C-alpha cells in the first residue's frame, strides 16, 4: 500500500501569503499513486451504489471523472457561473469576503438519482456544501462526499450533512 501523503506536494504562500497549498499535481504525475488513489476511493464509493458522481471544478473533475470511469457510472460537473453551455441551475454561497456561485446543467440527470460528491480537497466545506445543495435543487439525492485530502483543522466536515470520507488528512 502506497503512502499517498508522500505524493502530495505542499507549496507555501500560494495563492497568497499565509496559505499552504496542497498540490495533487505530484500525485497525478505518479501513475501507481494515482491508480491507488482511485482504487481506494472506489472501495468506499462502490458499496454505496450511486448512480453517478458529482465533481467540483476543477480538480474535482479529475477525481470524479477518474472514479466514475473506474466504477462505470456517470459523472456530472459543478462549475463556476457562466462556464457551462445550455440551461443551468445555480447556487450562490457565502465566502469569507463576498459570495460565489456554482452551476450545474439542467436536465442532464434524472431527478431521484443517487450521487456521491467527489473533490480533491475538503477545507472549510463551503464549496462542497453549495454543490450538495445545488444537486438537491436538481432532484439528486447526495448520499456521501469523498475527498482525496481533508484539512481537519478547518472543520469543513462539520458543514456537510452527509457522511464524509477522505484518504489523506492533515491535522494542522
Task: Set out the fold topology.
Layout lengths: L8 E4 L7 E4 L1 H4 L2 H15 L6 E5 L2 H13 L2 E7 L7 E8 L2 E8 L8 E9 L3 H12 L3 E11 L12 E7 L2
Parallel strand pairs: 3-4, 3-7, 7-8, 8-9
Antiparallel strand pairs: 1-2, 4-6, 5-6
Can you describe this structure in just a few lines?
The chain has 172 residues and is α/β, with parallel strands linked by helices. The protein is built from 4 helices and 9 strands; from the N terminus they run ββααβαββββαββ.
Describe the structure.
Helix 2 (31-45) packs across helix 3. This protein has 172 residues and is of the alpha/beta class. The protein has one domain (4-170): Rossmann fold (3-Layer(aba) Sandwich), CATH 3.40.50. Strand 5 (88-95) and strand 6 form a beta hairpin. Strands 5-6-4-3-7-8-9 form a 7-stranded mixed beta sheet, with helices on both faces. A two-stranded antiparallel sheet has the order 1-2. It has 4 helices and 9 strands.
- The largest sheet has its strands arranged as 5-6-4-3-7-8-9
N-to-C SSE string, H for helix and E for strand: EEHHEHEEEEHEE
Please count the beta strands (DSSP E, at least 2 residues each).
Answer: 9
Beta-strand portion reads: 35-45%
Structural class: alpha/beta
Query: What's the shape?
Result: globular
Mean pLDDT equals 96
The whole-angstrom Rg is 15 Å
CATH fold-level label: Rossmann fold
Q: What are the segments in which pLDDT stays under 50 over at least 5 consecutive residues?
A: none
Overall number of domains: 1
How many DSSP H or I helices?
4
Distance between the termini: 24 Å
CATH architecture: 3-Layer(aba) Sandwich
Main sheet characteristics: 7 strands, mixed
Please bin the fraction of helical residues: 25-40%
CATH top level class name: Alpha Beta
Amino acid at each position: 500500500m502506497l503512502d499517498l501523503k508522500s505524493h502530495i506536494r505542499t507549496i507555501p504562500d500560494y495563492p497568497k501569503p499565509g496559505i499552504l497549498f496542497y498540490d495533487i499535481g505530484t500525485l497525478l504525475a505518479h501513475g501507481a499513486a494515482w491508480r491507488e488513489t482511485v482504487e481506494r476511493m472506489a472501495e468506499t464509493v462502490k458499496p454505496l451504489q450511486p448512480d453517478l458522481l458529482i465533481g467540483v471544478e476543477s480538480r474535482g473533475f479529475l477525481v470524479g471523472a477518474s472514479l466514475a470511469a473506474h466504477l462505470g457510472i456517470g459523472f456530472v460537473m459543478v462549475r463556476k457561473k457562466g462556464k457551462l453551455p445550455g440551461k443551468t441551475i445555480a447556487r450562490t454561497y457565502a465566502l469569507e469576503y463576498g459570495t460565489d456561485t456554482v452551476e450545474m446543467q439542467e436536465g442532464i440527470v434524472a431527478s431521484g438519482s443517487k450521487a456521491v460528491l467527489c473533490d480533491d480537497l475538503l477545507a472549510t466545506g463551503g464549496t462542497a456544501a453549495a454543490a450538495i445543495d445545488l444537486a438537491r435543487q436538481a432532484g439528486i439525492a447526495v448520499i456521501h462526499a469523498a475527498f482525496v485530502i481533508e484539512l481537519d483543522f478547518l472543520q469543513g466536515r462539520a458543514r456537510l450533512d452527509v457522511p464524509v470520507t477522505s484518504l489523506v488528512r492533515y491535522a494542522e
